[in-house]
Structures are given as structure tokens and as C-alpha cells.
Amino acid sequence: MTECQTCNERMIESLYGMLGPADKADFERHIAACPECAAEHAALGETLRVMDKRERPDPGPEFWGGYWDRLSRRMLWEATEEGRGPSLAARIGRLFARLPRWAYQTAGAAALLLVGILIGSRLIGPSGTATTGTPGTTAAVSAPAPAGAVAQAGDFIERSKVLLLGLVNFDPAVEDAYAFDLGGKKAASRLLAAEAPAIRQGLGEPGQRRLRELVTDLEVVMMQIANLEAGQDVDGVELIKQGVDRRGLFLKIDLDRLTRDARPAAAAGAAGPVKKSQV
Amino acid sequence: MDEDAIIEGMTRGDQRAFRELVDRFKKKVFYLALDMAGNPVDAEDISQEVFLKVYRSFGTFRKGAKLGSWLYRITYNASIDHLRRKGAAPQAMADEIIEASAGSDAGLPRRGAADPAADLELRQLQDRIACALDKVSPQEKAVFVLRHYEDLQLQDIALSLGLSVGSVKSYLFRAVRKLQKELGTTALISRAETSHD
After folding, report:
1. Mind telling me how many Å the CA of B136 is from chain A's nearest CA?
2. Please, what's the b/e burial string for A219-241 (b: 16 or more CB within 10 A of its CB; e: otherwise)?
3. ipTM of this model?
4. Would the pLDDT of A56 be above 70?
């Protein structure tokens, strides 16, 4: 091994003053005799001096003062999630959170396509003609679940969506935080959170599990919004936005909307031929 | 509360010990995450993930190990996961960080600065440093940041990142050379390289 190679290996330790006395003496002797290594040593030393001038920003006392509260809130959120048990939807949600954005968009497009095919197949039927059926099967298809509860849930979801859209579209980088009506949103979300338990109780049918879970997800988010700190809790809003994004709530809302829209169409498709046969 | 007391308290599931741990390490965890992720919002998210993980899996903490090293390792891993999830290399810190620290447009002198020319020069330097750091790989960056700004010994960095001391030295050397190249002190080094060749 040449002296220059040895010198090179000790360069970093020398720059950070970590060489022992004997190694240091050897290193300095070589540097004094080798202009190339001396130049490199000087250049690296200069780089470290420039890096010393780097300013690491301090987010400020407000940030650090509220750090524990924000962490506690997140722990509460995660505990609520765990308390409900890792449902299939939650596991799928976590899987979605790990996927890149393009995968999300592809999945959304595929889901829309699937719903379209389902609606189409129900309306047209396997042979390409309108589906026929007996009054008995019609009754099974349109299984009149507690329509009131489903409608109530739909209304709750739509109102929650409007509120969430207002929140996630707020960008503190380009909008004035003080013009953002957080107080109004907190009040509205408190009302929505209060409505949610009754709606959930009305969704007891086996086929309404997904709808019930969506209502529960939204209830948690509404509670979080209602519990944001007074004033302009931009950090809290950011956390909620991340939570909404991570859980794919808008995708779930849109899928639910499509499913609910598809039901009356399917029911109408099934009900039509019955009327014909009656005529 | 000293470190042993925190560890003992955490082992018992004492909430006060957890709060003490958070208060003691939040800045170290946040700044490593910030250096790795490149923006304060992601850094806070990562740092919270770190503390949640610590809270949930303190049972995996090896008795006799250093709490700081363990936290640095979790932070490093969480940052790498975060970067992978984002599917991109860390963004240059310039814009968001300089905005956050100076509260004015990047590259422009701060309003009311005593010496606008000096202030502008300083801000441009910060910009250059941020861009240079962005060119360094995550592993090299973690090693450099822990050595240069957290003043950790090579052995502690090796423990924190699960590397050998030799690898730490190698990453550190590569990081400094890349920074040197990016910061424009290339004339010296290219002259040295030419002479060596």
C-alpha cells in the first residue's frame, strides 16, 4: 500500500481530529512531503468549514411546545384504529397507504370500471336482453334494507365529504391561514360527530358493514377536527389531511357513492320486467 | 430523570417516562428526520412514527444499549421507509427549509436585514449547501449528519446505523468528497486527482 493510499484512508479521521498521536505524526509527515495529498486535505477541510456555516432551522417554540399534544393526538387516533380491530378495510387502507400515487389512481380507475361492468351486467343481463325474474327474486334483489338508515348515512357521508374537501384543499403555503374558517369547520364537524353513533346503530344489516365502517372512519376524523386547537392549528390540519390521505377516505367515499347509486338502478332493472309480466 | 430511569420507567409502561423520553430526544429525532426527508412536515410525521414505534415496541430495546443510538436507528429506518414510499430521492431542502427558517422568499435578502448584501450571500450559501447535501445518498447523508452536526463518534454512528466502523468511514469520506465537488471547491481536488493519475 502506498503512502498516499494510507494517507487517503486517514484523511477523514485527520479532518475530524480522531487520529492517535503516532498516526497523526505519520499523516502530517506525509502531508508535508506530498503536495497532492496536502491539496486534497486542504480542500476537504475547506468543505467542512463551509458545511459548518449551514443553518438548521428551528421550527420555533410554538412547534416544540405543541409537539407532545400533537403526538398524543396521533396516539389517540392510532389507538382508536386498533381498538376497532384490524378490519379488512383497515388492512386494505394500510396497504393503499404504502402504494405510490399512480397505483392509487390505477386502482380507482379499475374500481370505476368494475362498478360500470356490474351495473351494465345487471341492466342488460347475460344474454344481452333485459333481465327477467319472478316477483320472488325481485324481492330478494331489492332486499329493502332499512332505507332510512342508508339514506341518513349517505347524507352524513356527503356532508362530511364537503367539510373534508374544504379542509384538504386548504394550502397554508398559498392561502391566508386567518381567512380559513376553522371555527366553523370545527362546529360543523362536532355536529356530524354527534350524529354518527345513531347512524351507525341503524346500519346493522350484514351487507352494510362497509358503510358502517366508513361512517366510523368519518366519525373519528370529525372528532379530530372538532378537537383541533383554538386559533389556526395549521399543524393539526396537516395531520388530519395526512390521515385522510393515508386511509384513502375520498376513494372509499366515492366507491360508496357509486355503490349506492348503482342500487336503485339495479332495483329498477329488476323491477321493470315484473311490471311487464303483470301487464 | 436520567437515561436509566427512563429505560426502567418505559419497561414498566410508565407514561411519564415516555413523555420524558420524547422531551429529551424529540429535537435529535426531528433534525435527523429533517435532514433525511428534506422538509419539516415529513420530518414531524417521521418523528411521530419513531416515538409511536418506541412506545409500542420498547420490549425490543436491548438492555445495555444506548437509547440515543436506538432512536437514531429507528429514525434512520423510518426516514428510508418514508423516502421509499414517496418513491423519490429527498427533495432539496432549499425552499421549504429556508422559508421556514427565514420566513421570506428563498434567495432574497430578508426584509429588515442589517446588511442585505451579507444576508443575501448567506442565504445563497445556505441554498448551495442544501443542494449539495441533496446530491449525497441517504446513507452517506445520515453518516455525515450524525458525525458533523450531532458530533457522534464513528463507533456510535456504526451502532446507530447498523454498519461497521470501516463502512462509516468510507461513507463519510464519500459524502465529504461529494459535498466538496458540489460546493465548487473542485479546482483543488481535480488538480490533486490529475497529479495522482
Report:
1. 13
2. bbbbbbbbebeeebbebbbbbbb
3. 0.79
4. yes
